[in-house]
Structure of Large ribosomal subunit protein bL32:
Amino acid sequence: MAVPKRKMSKSRRDKRRANWKLTVPGLVECPQCHEMKMPHRVCSECGHYNGKVVIQAE
């Protein structure tokens, strides 16, 4: 049975686990104000989502 010869330090273990990368989330244009926003989120500029006012933007 394979058993490690030495204890792996926390920093060495964490360096190995931190080695994958996320892709940048795609941005879409808001149909109301034409600002860029993340998909399936309320627009932070105008407060619209799915053609309806969800939050009152200033």
